[in-house]
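Weekly sync notes, structure subgroup
Attendees: PM, AL, DS (notes)

Item 1: joint prediction request from the bench team. They want all two components modeled as one assembly rather than separately. Inputs as received:
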Amino acid sequence: MERVGFRLQLRTEMLDEYVLHHTKVWPDMLAALEKTGWHNYSLFLDRSDGSLFGYFETPDLQAALAGMASEEVNERWQKFMAPFFLELGDKRADEGFISLENVFYLK
Amino acid sequence: MERVGFRLQLRTEMLDEYVLHHTKVWPDMLAALEKTGWHNYSLFLDRSDGSLFGYFETPDLQAALAGMASEEVNERWQKFMAPFFLELGDKRADEGFISLENVFYLK
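Output from the run, pasted for the record:
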């Protein structure tokens, strides 16, 4: 399994609403993530500046990204979420995230 | 298992050296982490601003923190690492980290 860390920037005035939506992610969105290999997936929020940190494990990152890119529900979900993010331009959040460098790992 | 996300701020002029030290963490430091319940532990670096994100899983966060606080090797390691961090004051990195809010989880 590859361990993936990524970072995105939320609009700090919209954090409560973002969190609320993530307590009730659409079941077909969850199913699509599972199907395309997004495992043990957590999102962590730093409310002090709106930094969002994602962590997941996947057998193949490129396949996981390509898989979600081909899911219709993902396109709807990312359009729904786009207003919450800064600095994405025309990209979906899962296209625009900054992949982080894994500098340490202990099993 | 509790999933823990945390964040720290590295001095951007010292990133290469920080990364290098983390390719050769002392064996007794690794053993202490394992012994005190730090599992599946990754550190991720955002080189654009020196943000460091940590992720680990533990049966009991308070026990994991207290366990490391009582390990002599941890005191030595944290003293060694202290110059790499900003905004810690007199705290060790594992005392000064910002615990992040887990806003989403998918198994």
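Discussion: The longest helix of chain B spans residues 72-81.
Action: AL to compare against the crosslinking data before next sync.
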